[in-house]
Amino acid sequence: MFENTQQFLDMLPIIIIGAGILISTTIEMYSEKSEAVLPWFSVFIFSAAAFYSLVYADKQSIILQNMLSTGGITNIFYFIFNIGAAIVCLLSLDYTKKYGMNYGEYYILIQASVLGMMFMAGAKDLFMIFLGLEIMSVSFYVLAGVNRKKEKAIEGALKYFLLGAFATGFLVYGIALIYGSAQSTSIEVITAGFTSLTGNILFVAGVLLFLIGFSFKIAAFPFHMWVPDVYQGSPTTVSGLFSTAGKAAAFSAIIATLAALFNSSPDNIFSPYLSVLALFSMLFGSIVAIAQSNIKRMLAYSSISHAGYMLIGLAAGSFDGTAGVIFYLTVYTFMNLAAFGIVALIEGENETNLELDSYSGLGNRNPVLAALLSICMFSLAGIPPMAGFFGKYYVFIAAIKSDLIWLAIVGIFSSVISVYFYLRVVVLMYFKDSEFEKVPAKSFSGFLGVTISILLIIALGIFPGSLLDLITSYL
Amino acid sequence: MLNLIIIGFFASAFAPLIYKRTKKYFGWIAASFPLYMFISFILKYNEIASGKIIKEAISWIPSLGINFSFLLDGLSLTFVLIITLIGTAVFLYAGSYMKNYEHTGRFYLYIGVFMTSMIGLVLSDNMITLFVFWELTSISSYLLIGFNHHKESSRKSALQALLVTGGGGLALMAGLILLAQVSGSFEISALYDIHDKIVSSKLYPAVVILILLGAFTKSAQFPFHFWLPNAMEAPTPVSAYLHSATMVKAGIYLIARFNHAIGGTVIWQDTILIAGTITMFIAALLAFNQTDLKKLLAYSTLSVLGTLTMLLGIGSNLAIKAFFIFLVAHSLYKGTLFLVAGIFDHKTGTRNVSMLGGLKKLLPVTMTAALLASFSMMGIIPLVGFIGKETVYSSILEVENFRFLLLALAVISNAFVVMVTILVGIKPFFGKLLPTLKPPQEAPVKMLIGPILLAVFGLLTGLFPNVFIQKLLDRSTISILAEELGITVKLWHGFNYVLLLSFVTLLLGIGLYYFRKQILQILENLSLSNYLKPSFWYERILNGTLSFASLQTKILQNGYLRYYIIFIIITTLGLTGYTLFKISGIGSLDITTDLTIYELIIGIIIIASTFLVITSVSRLKAIVAIGVVGFCIGIIFILYSAPDLALTTFAIETLTVILFVLVLYRLPKYLQFSNPGSKIRDAIIAASVGIFMTMIVLLVTAGEMQSELKKYFAEASLAEGKGRNIVNVILVDFRAIDTLGEITVLAVAAIGVYALLKLRLKEGDK
User: What is the ipTM of this complex?
Assistant: First the structure.
């Protein structure tokens, strides 16, 4: 399998997680205390993989007979997935206890989903992408329904599974057409012949179906239907994982596959498709989020509109756009995880405290959490100098450079709308008196997870250049 | 300069902590902070006055050309001095005024952040840094307006101000990015040399409109003026500081700052001139039927903001001079009067002018400050307001087009302002002593220092203009117009036409004051239609968006899986169908083909079974029919001599039917059937999908598949893979890793299913 030690080292992040799954399964089988060990074990392997990826990102290579790439952008994605998953595990520790579902398998499934994501980000072959996607999706379907006592969870999981399978159908069909027209599933071959292939109608149809399959995974309008139901029904921590690392993985696969599209032709034929999707996702997400009274549903719609902003970067079809999307994904992962994390902390047993009104007066009841959530909301709304602003800024500027000025302006317009519902949470926390006396449950690990995310948001808000330069250097 | 801004943010962050320990003296401690800033900047006065421009830059995101670059020239120094001087007065004043509020510490945090951001805004030389500070002022203003958050109206006004100014801010960002796109740089000072290139660009009109949108919303120009009077819900120190002296001037600052770089064109000058004139006039009229002290002041502030914008629109040397003097004068007197209004509120319990009167003897010190400020606002010699008004008139007299219209509007607006001044600053002290809610008493020292300080400054500036503002004026005009004026500021210009105008204004104002009740009656009959009020449209749009949001949720997010799938299918068809249709002439496909009798029979069986599926009333029958379709497809594979594929199909079909039966057997019978309408809809959708898929299949088969792979696998499977069944060899040998991967997926699925089953067991244990 490995031609030399270097290949082994290049693949180490994947190996860590893969071995981690096997070890975790063994622990789960033979240990009585697996529920106590596995969360911290998961945090450990995720952090190890994340930091290894980041430190050795400059060693780029292609391994496993042109199947996987390592280093560079791939490793940055590895970092996003693993840090995200580590934070999710921290958040889950006390949350799962609250619902009586702290099973070891929960963590093994998270590990498996991350393995799938890593295959997607590093894929050099369409089959690897499909494989990674399925590993991730199957884990996700189960995670969505892991709280079996909740009817909403089961309903959500079933919807997720059915629609997910449906979308996978599009994806596979697309891959088949691409294979038929390009004579290969190797991404390098496809990239090399991209310009001439766009004249082939089968190839165009294949790419479109491929994009539609992924539009479902990134939750872009109109393939977003499952999102509110699933995010609401699933355990809050799991929704956090879906909306961040899951979305990042889908974007990583699009970027990996269509690198040629995003690095060359400014007047590429897929840009209209991506622009339209971006346009509707942004506006739909922002407008409908206003009408929500459940905070998880609100975050679900907000994630739809964020998918729209990221699609702007893809529609721009340029280096700047791609770099902007990756930056946006990083920032978005942290701010959304922090938001879901705080929601999970405040959530009471049996799904109480999930309405927006439960946040009234939080500024007095728990000033620290209120302040953290405010930072999150400001960042999600894209108000400078929070990191969220730079995410939007980069994709907008990329759009303008690619002559998609109208799209950037719609994006700004949609941001204005979104300010309304994000800040409503802040208003409730500080400007309204509480009707509840309950102080949120204390969870050290959950608080730690939220704090790490917030610190990363602030750091990226102050030094956005450091990450952006890193991304640009690998593109 | 960056260090001062960082100090500012840090100091603000610690304000609540320090406040907790030193409640009583905190006003003094807090005031020392803007005072320190004031002193640090006044020390640079000589340098700036001698014509130097101080620049400072630290790179932030060098790859995008975004830096923390700051620039201190005449214009920014003027603004910084105003911000810090009034800040000192307000911070001290608030120490006493905010004493009985909850969370006073937090108040200082917000206002400290505001002041620092405002300083950052006027010092920024980089457009993005400027924008960041711009939004920070909007947010801190939002938090300060909503500070009395127990009141519903407070929260509403705060949100309104934020949506209008924040939204305008984003428009500004779009404008700045476009501008950078045209000019290739984010540094404002770099724009001066390429004025012609910018102005002749295709994007120039968009740049102007977007930047002016930002400026007009922030400075509450018509038709965005409505948020400012509502913002008076804020505690009085906030109104005095943000909504009269500093934040609302940020838009005007922006216009002045960019005037040299992108101004000088017809679209720029005229838009500014028209918006400013309308604001000046309408705001003055709207002030008329107000009785609340702060609302009166707010409308007069609006009118002044309009005048300032109008002067920038005129853009002549004299107009810029008038702009500058009027700006300084207004900040000084309006700050004082707001603080005086706060004293009334605090010490008598009311802000209603009709309930105030005869306070001369009870509030002597307050009266001194109030009168000084009022005289300045009315334009009475020798205060700085007089010089301001004189230069405004003389600059209008220089205008070529519509000179007399502008003049008439200016005189009338100023007359209304005079009336407001009499109401706010003079009437409460004279006449009969009116009963108030609280027994009136003189304000404490902390609340008096501020107004007195500002009022006296106004007097001194009026008496010795060449000492106080002459040099800054020269430097500022260079920033705005890029040329030195060489005009001196004098208090007395002799008896001339302009002096006469000032006099007329004053008389007119006094007249308005005495006949205000009669005029009010006339005005009431002329009440404006709702459709003409911008605030009406704001409400409309806001409510419209809200109900649109709920409606959309109902239609699109109804929870039914089948509708979700329909929606997805339609979109897919639409998007791909359209693109495909655009690329190639799908119509030119050759669909004639030789049909054997077997194929025909199988085809008929498939179609017949399909009809059976959709018409059947029992689930079992439908499943069987689906099975028949599957088996027929298997037979087609046999006909095309692909027995392995056929075998796989048979196996899978059998399994599917069994699984289906097992699951569906447990379900109840069909209870209801879809109505004809939805049947037709489903039929149409199904037919379109069918046609679309057929098209794709035809396309696939139409092109010759000249695949190297076919040949390669046929040759290599026996030689390298040691197997005759090519498909099997591919699965277990050539693409073994893929197969391994698929097995991994299945394993993961198994873990998942196991987890679910285990959960069920544990549940059963209970």
Answer: 0.72
